[in-house]
């Protein structure tokens, strides 16, 4: 560092120290823990002891500067010496196995990782045996330094990440970058959307101009109102077209998708909604100003009569234009506010859902309000009505039942629905589901997480984030209520006999060679359990049927979080998403954040079904490979799957599926693996953090030894922290497997970041928007 930078750093640390130390100019242990934001007290105590060089029980400014100077400005040897002292708890000059186990246990807590004690012992022994080169029973500083040299990425930047508050802000002025919307990459990747938006704006300008010029004789405010009114005729009709989900899904399979931005119809719907709001405000305001001017002239009507009565006779239906105009303004404002992100994402989806149904009243009032709106609306309105009728008919055809439920970590409900014969869909599609026992009139969209090749059932994974999803989770979490029927014992006995028969049929059908017994609490016991084939669902693939009418419900509890049931539901769909394009890509990068893995679960299963169809086996040996062929069905040459989770338990949602995908690729391919998986756990501290370096080294060593990750049980090693997107996409580009398409499902903030990196790398970016 230069002299100026060093002086600036000293000034910054002094300022931070004074804000923490208070009047006594000393930092005690509690203040130290609070400032460093260290979760585990072990590291706070160890760091504090090493910072407190005089053993006074407090840290002075001089002691803090001395320690931080070593950590931030010191060389690798100085930092490694500090790390060794942290691990050497008793100060003996060496690290014994018990000390190392204590440190690793604290590392696990700091990274929010939960492992059994036996696994902790395995991690300790793996690291200790690797570092103890002379088998002396302890690790010296030289041995630790030699071991760390095997991890060059750690040696590059060994820091205490929690001490970032002590680093001064960057004094250098940020470079003036070209605005993202003016870059060549942005225009190249968004050319269809930009062209479409340009045509949309030009059309509105033309409509406004022609309508205004027709009323030049009645004054400026009437011209303004009429121009906005004509634009509203178009926009209120165009927004209907953007709601035709079935038609848009069909158009995705045609050449139209190459011309119009159908993948971004939700964004276009929102933009048209904002345009409608702006036009209605100007339209209403211009009419009010015109009424004020009319009331001040020799007119026989007062202002309030123009605004709130039908006496002036303004409007083509009994002079109701003013009254219907105010009602329309209120409804459109309410729909806009209730459809905003803070309402939909704050657990109040029902508010958005019910207020958005006001579009029926808006269209009805527009027909009464505007004399020419019906001419614009009749054709799109008829198609919309026809689509709704078809949707209701399809959703009510046949009996759909939820036949299995699994309650997964982080309040995720896994629903298994009996798939009707006529239900065909593509990987990544979504459906609207209605479950009368949860809410009779509410429909909610969820991505199908099972593959189309799975013919007997549909999977939905529902994250509890709102009122309806929480009610769904709680409904299946609570024990079954007691029956209140008059002949309860007779009915229960008959049902139990029926259940036992269906259970025996169920387990025989899925390959359970053993006896099935029913307990008093209607749970299932399995004896001589010998599965003959792998079940398709997370637990078991089963269907329990009963003929008890519309609201029939039958629940067979297998465990606290898993049960078979027979609950009526209705499904409307399927509807297409941008992920339908994945099979036309050559190199696909799938990025899921949290429950955003759901569409990719379906896609990955479908990909591997097709992958198996290409797989070839040598007749003379056990060697197998996959032919690198392109066809109309799938052009994929490589798939990179990236799953980012906040905590360890979230990986349990689809770990069985991912394990099966890894088993399908047990053999190396001539050109490398067709599917590569990358797992990231954001709550875990990075490898270059002193509080996690030992744990990450041990996890790496044990993963190489057991060929299995200790956190997920997969062969793929779970990486701590967040992905470095620049390095991720650079590696993808270097593979040169063909044109790269990136598909993302997750938070909007992360989507914006990834999209910016894709534009820099020249990759096509698609996001789930529904």
From TrEMBL:
Location relative to the cell: Membrane
Predominant location category: membrane
Biological processes annotated in GO: defense response; superoxide anion generation
One GO location term (cellular component): NADPH oxidase complex
Keywords noted in UniProt: Calcium, FAD, Flavoprotein, Membrane, Metal-binding, NADP, Oxidoreductase, Transmembrane, Transmembrane helix
Membrane topology: Multi-pass membrane protein
Transmembrane segments: 194-213, 265-293, 313-339, 351-368, 588-611
PROSITE patterns recorded: EF_HAND_1, EF_HAND_2, FAD_FR
InterPro entries, per the entry: Cyt_b245_heavy_chain, EF-hand-dom_pair, EF_Hand_1_Ca_BS, EF_hand_dom, FAD-bd_8, FAD-bd_FR_type, Fe3_Rdtase_TM_dom, Fe_red_NAD-bd_6
Name of the protein this chain belongs to: NADPH oxidase 5
Residues covered by the EF-hand domain: 39-74, 75-110, 119-154
Chemical reaction(s) catalysed: NADPH + 2 O2 = 2 superoxide + NADP(+) + H(+)
Claim: rRNA-binding is one of the keywords in the record: no
Molecular function per GO: calcium ion binding; superoxide-generating NAD(P)H oxidase activity
Residue intervals of the FAD-binding FR-type domain: 395-509
Pfam families documented for this protein: EF-hand_6, EF-hand_7, FAD_binding_8, Ferric_reduct, NAD_binding_6
